[in-house]
Amino acid sequence: MNYHQAFTQTIANRSARSYPGAFDLRSRNGTIFPAHRPRFQFKFTPQQVVFTIGSCFARHIEEALFERDVFFPTRTFAVPKEEYAYRPNGLLNEFNPGAISQRILFALNEKEFPESTVVPCGEGYADLLLMGGANDVTRERALARRKEVDEVYKYLSRSDLVIMTLGLVEAWYDEEAGLFINRAPPHAFAEHQVNRFTLRQLDVDDCMQLLEPALDALSSRGIKTILTVSPVPLQMTFTADDCVIANEFSKSVLRVCAERLRNCPEVDYFPSYEIVRCGGLRGYIDDQVHVRDELVREVTNYMVAVYEQG
Fold it and tell me: Is residue 237 part of a domain?
């Protein structure tokens, strides 16, 4: 961009080119809502199929939009309390770019994940492709539940919009299966197979190589994608850094990737991360991890407004 182009651009961006002060219209009750010019228009109506994939913030968005009667395939999945004590569909959360990408590509290409990623855990078995925190189940139940998840992902190719929330870059990899997994491997199982599982701290290039094929596969089917970065922090790190430092690295990598991925067809970035983070800890409940429900609703309402207006 030359001198003339830069100044032409900043003049056109006059209302948003400076960081907002206390009396700026972008500031509301201590939270900043940056100006956002979407790359495409999208109407959140009952006729639309919206698929959410990513970290728990994707579930927050899903719930905030539910009153609009948009069809979310991910809400057709539920497990009983004895398997997972929190959101009935919370086991669908995907946190790292590797797990997200392979889930999309396997679904669109109608491929099945190998049964070797269901492993002994405690008194039962764990599905390494699902998030941690679930109670042990029988191997039969783990495999049956995997088929239930596959049924949900059959809707992906028929979706009008995907909302993808990127969570973290510390990713466990199953060298035997050649797959990213969505949780740390069970300790008692992994300590006897020390070379099977490796921890990867993904950088920008790694994430781009993983996510670009998945986004291209979606756009080739005419599916739009809104990318977000989860404002929910990394709750534990496997690195030698303080978790606060590891979290900032993780979010910074994902934010750079999201910016670069805006160049993919039918892909846009929405700044939910910036909105929540700019308000500091006041945007979170007392655990300083999860975002206040009322703020999630404000963020989601803003997202709907800007994409419906186009």
Answer: yes
Per residue in 238-282, pLDDT (tens digit) is: 999 999 999 999 999 999 999 999 999 999 999 999 999 998 999
Alpha carbons 246 and 249: distance in angstroms, whole number = 5
CA distances from 168 to 89, 157, 162 (A): 20, 25, 19
The per-residue pLDDT for range 116-125, each reduced to its tens digit, is: 999 999 889 9
Show the tokens assigned to 102. 């392979």
147 lies in a domain? no
**Whole-angstrom distance, CA of residue 295 vs CA of residue 165:** 17
Alpha carbon distance 293, 62 (integer Å) = 12
Query: What pLDDT digit, counting tens, does each position of 213-241 carry?
Result: 999 999 999 999 999 999 999 999 999 99
Report how many domains make up the chain: 1
The DSSP element (H or E) to which 309 belongs, if any, is helix 293-309
Pairing of strands 197-201, 170-174: antiparallel
Q: Tell me the residue type at 155.
A: Y
Tokens of 173: 């990899």
How far is it, in rounded angstroms, from Cα 129 to Cα 146? 9
Are 95 and 55 spatial neighbours (Cβ–Cβ below 8 Å)? yes
Domain that holds residue 205: 42-113+153-181+197-309
Give a yes or no: residue 59 inside a domain. yes
Q: Which of 47, 75, 53 is closest to 63 using CA atoms?
A: 75
User: pTM above the 0.90 mark?
Assistant: yes
Is the residue at 215 inside a domain?
A: yes
Which is nearest to 304 in space by CA: 128, 62, 103, 137?
62
Query: Which residues lie across from 165 on neighbouring strands?
Result: 54, 228
Answer whether 186's CB lies under 8 Å from 126's CB: yes
Question: What distance in Å separates the CA atoms of residue 174 and residue 172, rounded to the nearest whole number?
Answer: 7
Q: What is the CATH number of the domain that holds 76?
A: 3.40.50
Q: What is the pLDDT of residue 38?
A: 95
The secondary structure element, H or E, covering residue 28 is: strand 27-28
